[in-house]
Amino acid sequence: MDNFSRRTIDDEIGSQSLVPIRTLRERIDAWHKATGQTLRPYVFDLTDYKKTLDMIEDFQPDAIVHFAEQRAAPYSMIDRDHAVYTQVNNVVGTLNVIYALARLMPDCHLVKLGTMGEYGTPNIDIEEGFIEITHKGRTDVLPYPKQPGSFYHLSKVHDSHNIMFACMNFRLRSTDLNQGIVYGHATDETRLDDALATRFDYDGVYGTVLNRFAVQAVIGHPLTVYGKGGQTRGMLDIRDTLRCIEIALTNPPEPGEYRVFNQFTEEFSVGDLAHRVQRLYPGAVIEYLPNPRTEMNEHYFHAVNTHLLDLGLEPHFLSDEVILEMFEIIEHHRERVVPENVNPDIDWRQTGTKSHLWPGLFDRTSKASGRGS
Question: What does each C-alpha distance from 132 to 142, 143, 364 come to in angstroms?
Fold first, then answer.
């Protein structure tokens, strides 16, 4: 099910995936040709509860993998409108799924894409969703305290709370996959046909850090590191992303159970990644910029990720070969790079209008999409 909002946002911000993305119909046809399997598309907005009910009733799913959310922290911090859109789209869409399942298929397993960003960067180890607390002589297992760093991450926290309550109240079953930053551009499945290629985002709004550094290196732009580059995050290969989903689906929780898996395999700082790209791309230059985000530039970070490993995940760790292959892909599609989009210029502390944002960004938007933003 899709409403193509991500493609619309490309028009809005004047950007595009480095790797061309085919239409949904072309992708479905390519998948059928490559595998013999048929996908049934539903095209609507998940915030439409009636259509959500109709889809659940029509398809009768055993499980739902829920990725239908605005997923960029920078996008949610552009201004008030983008913060509200992010929260309404994410929270209301998820609530609609919850109520549709409770009404029609309460035994269906909801696999929800969360984020490690829900936790923030506490000065203690990050557990998997829950933590045992002893307070004034009494002990309980409680949801791990959340310190999200953007309105996007806040929306994910709201989702987690809503789903946990729904499991308790409606006896639903759900797995929350708190995912780290994903790198890599292909899986065994997407390699079956060029039409199955997934997105490669590199811009300052949607581009993940390793993608952005790799593109900057190839086009001769400095690798833009925020602050001192000490921000550390959990990361994983895109192939492991899909494997984690498979593991969750084949090991469902019990009715009424809400569980959390921390979905990452390694921890890297932003500075570590920049230096690794620089080592592999001779001539690349690192530039340290004032941090546009409200975050600590250096901090303690250590998270637990044992559940998926215990269930059989065999991680792909970041190798030089993965980064070198990224360089090849970027060179192949170099003409699609919009150089001015690699700069991270959204100031998270602004509360006003788009005039505070990238100079010329929304002028480009009008030209790109044929409408104002």
Answer: 6, 9, 51
Catalytic residue among 152, 183, 258, 281: 152
DSSP output for 315-370? -----HHHHHHHHHHHHHTGGG--GGGGS----TT--S-GGGSSTTHHHHHHHHHS
Residue 80: closest CA among 365, 350, 364:
350
Specify if 367 maps to a domain: no
Tell me the pLDDT tens digit for each residue of 223-265: 999 999 999 999 999 999 999 999 999 999 999 999 999 999 9
183 is catalytic: no
Using the predicted structure, report yes or no on whether residue 357 has a pLDDT greater than 80. no
| Nearest CA-CA partner of 276 in 225, 238, 236, 227 | 225
Q: Each residue of 275-313: b (16+ CB within 10 Å) or e?
A: bbbbebbeebebebeebbbeebbeeebebebebbeeeeb
In a domain, residue 21? The reply is yes
Q: Which domain holds residue 152?
A: 5-344
286 contacts: CB under 8 Å, gap ≥ 6: 222, 223, 225, 274, 275, 278
Catalytic: which of 86, 94, 115, 241?
115
Structure tokens that stand for 117 in this block? 């960003």
Residue 359 lies in a domain: no
Indicate which residue of 156, 175, 241, 365 is catalytic.
Answer: 156
Residue range 17-28, pLDDT digits in tens: 999 999 999 999
Could you confirm whether 152 is annotated as catalytic?
yes
pTM: 0.92
> What's CA 44's distance to the chain center, in Å?
21
* 181 occurs within a structural domain: yes
On whether the CB atoms of residues 233 and 85 are closer than 8 A, the answer is no
Strands 286-289 and 223-226: parallel
* Contact criterion met (CB below 8 Å) for 53 and 100: yes
Count of domains observed in the chain: 1
Give the three-class secondary structure for 85.
Answer: helix
